[in-house]
Amino acid sequence: MNEKIKKALGVGLPLLLGVFLVFYTYNKFTDRQLEEMKGYFQNANYGFIAISSVFSIVSLASRGYRWRYSLEHMGYFSQFRNNFAAVCIGYLMNYTVPRSGEVSRALVLKKYNDIPFDKAFGTIIAERVIDLFILIGFILTALVLQFDQLKSFLTATVPVEKLMYLGFIGIFGFIVVVLLFIYSTWKPILFIKDKISGLIEGLLSTFKMPNRVPFLIHTGIIWISYVLTFYAAVFALPETSDIGLGVIVTAFVVGSLAVTFTNGGFGAFPLMIAQILVLYNIPETAGTTFGWILWTSQTALVVLLGGLSFLLLPILNRKK
């Protein structure tokens, strides 16, 4: 397949899915419900959305600062401003092609600090592995706190049998790839193995670095800020302001998964949030409005910070 066509599909298909979900959500509601949602938007307390955005900026800054520890352990230095800008650009790029932000982050440091791409990318993968375990911890917490509600939701929306089939196929494919990498002498495979060794070095640097404690402290700050970003936003609407901690954790987990597997949650985030909140007797119109307000504010923040980072990085790194 032509490379341009692949790139177009990589960008276009997720966006089309998001557009479909937007129209699907819109067409679900009657004219009266749409008017009700319009009232929610107009009467929302956007002061709490501003507070939510502050927590989001804290998480971005802490993620940029945390990155320095794994980079310095490998003998590389990057200024905080470059790390922070790279993180913001990475989040912005994830709105185009899912998970492309990790590549963008490493490319920024390669351009402005001459840090080898595979080493920088390895540290990012290490971060993602750690973040994945933390997200799994949140998922388990949500399951414990809200088991009955989540059970009914998952059994009604997730095709369990299909997931099992995909799981078996994935395991088989993984075994084939591992065997191929161990025994193959094909030059492209050897080239990839050499690059993977750089990734592994970056991954292991996290567990060997002398600054493990501050690294973990910043990890905690990042995830606490994520939760507080969500928590502050629930007060924007009276209908969501009384939900308990268990509901907040559950909705936060579902929202995080929606963002992870789509273009920044476009279309999926408000839909999934609304479906979760319905389980707790919050009107679907209010839940959908809340999801769109939070998603839109976070997207606007990412676009603003990512765009400014693109513009300011060449200026801030201009050679004198």
Description:
The chain is mostly helical and 320 residues long. It has a domain of 214 residues. Helices cover 82% and strands 0% of the residues. The protein contains 13 helices and no strands. Helix 3 crosses helix 4, helix 3 packs across helix 9 and helix 3 packs across helix 13. It is globular. About 2% of the residues have low confidence. This is TIGR00374 family protein. InterPro entries: L-PG_synthase/AglD. Pfam families: LPG_synthase_TM. It is a multi-pass membrane protein. It is found in: Cell membrane.
On the 0 to 100 scale, the average pLDDT is: 79
Structural shape: globular
Number of strands: 0
User: What structural category characterises the helix and strand content?
Assistant: mainly alpha
- Order of SSEs, N→C? HHHHHHHHHHHHH
Q: Which regions are unreliable across 5 or more consecutive residues at pLDDT < 50?
A: 7-11
Number of helices: 13
CA-CA gap between termini: 45 Å
The Cα radius of gyration reads 21 Å
Beta-strand content bin: under 5%
Provide the helix percentage: over 70%
Largest sheet: none
Membrane topology: Multi-pass membrane protein
Subcellular location: Cell membrane
Organism: Flavobacterium saliperosum S13
Protein name: TIGR00374 family protein
